[in-house]
Amino acid sequence: MPYQQLAAPGRGLFAIQLAAITDLSLELSKAGDEEELLRLAAELGHERLGFDRLELKLFPDWRANNRRCPLRYYEEAECRDAAGAFLGRADRAVALLWDGERALGELGADNLPSGRPLDGGSLELLVLYARTVGHLVSRAREAEELKREATTDSLTGVMNRRVSLLFLDKQLGLASRSRSPLSVAYVDLDGLKAVNDRHGHAEGDAYIAAVSELLASSVRGSDLVGRLGGDEFLVVFPDCEPGPASAVMARIAQAAAARSAAEGKSYAYSLSWGLASLGELPSQAGGPDAASLLELADRRMYADKLARKAARN
Questions:
Q1: In the chain, which ranges are E strands?
Q2: pLDDT over 70 for what percent of the chain?
Q3: Which end of the chain is more exposed for a tag (fewer CB within 10 A), N or C?
């Protein structure tokens, strides 16, 4: 119920506001991500705090918005819907979503449908609620950043070694139980050491990042590209036979060479790769072994690298 209805004899307005905000903060903290948090903040703010309309807006450049007025009040302001259509005029207040250090966005409120005024208690509540939502948004972003750092490779943005191997192990189990195909590619960049020696490690990192981007953009959403370390990558193709997976890898190799030529590089983006599939593994009591599948793909990658080296010589 709206906080105004919680009033009891001898109970102060601030205590009522604090109780309402505390309850809302607990509920909002259960949101799974930032998008759900913002949706719930608008819905619950309307239901519990008594505002007819609430609008949450995040700043795209929130790092630059460090100094703003905590509350702005407009008399007979234009009120519009989400599509920008004019609805009428009413008093409107806008509070800052502030996390204690940065302004992350704004929380706007009006009572256009009912015509009720925004009194002092309502404005205080709006500011308190905006601060609460701002802290929760900041916490959600920090949690997302920690998750990203724990799961992705910092240079390339693809999955890191730990997550890649966990994904492979899970997909192997699923494919084995459902008797569906699965293929993996072990990828190694050619000539990275020479690029580092001749052009510096920054250029070598650019080489790694460019090929990583090609790998990630050339596979399906259900596939995974992970960096195993250095210049080695893993591509997992769930529900995919070796033939189609091999065709994808061949196209990526061609695209890599074309990209380095288009960028005017003095060396070629070149990758060696080896493919292995679940159907090649022997049956065993404990189920398919990810290490055996990777070892087979790695051997084939090394054979491909030797063949390329011999062709160049």
A1: 53-58, 71-80, 86-98, 103-110, 182-189, 224-229, 232-238, 271-277
A2: 91
A3: C
